[in-house]
Amino acid sequence: EVLTLAVLMFPVLRGLALQLHAAITGSYIPGTHSLAFISCLNEHIAKDIARAIMDKKLAASVNILPKSSALSFWKGELEESVEILLVVKTRTSKIGELSNYVRSIHPFEIPEIISLPIDQGNPLYLKWIGENVPRD
Fold it and tell me: Which helix (H) or strand (E) holds 80?
């Protein structure tokens, strides 16, 4: 039983140890922040969604990347479209809330909202993200 408990508690204890180490040294914990990618039909929709995300304080920054061609399967058919891509910098803990909010305002039936954790980066920039996206 003790061994089972120790194995089950390892991820929790490791996480706490990483947080303590980061607090003491000021180092970054990989995965604390994430990049989210959201595709939009046009620039108007992209700007509206980006502004809504910022108004809700769900991101520190949103880049609106210019038009790109996209190929995808939709309802069994290959479709070609032009999309605008949002790149959202936020806390990983906000991804669920961000995804739910974007789905509620996005015109696509199934909007593309995917994220990747930030492993490393400029420590000052990563700190800036944390300062500009409130904790849960």
Answer: strand 77-91
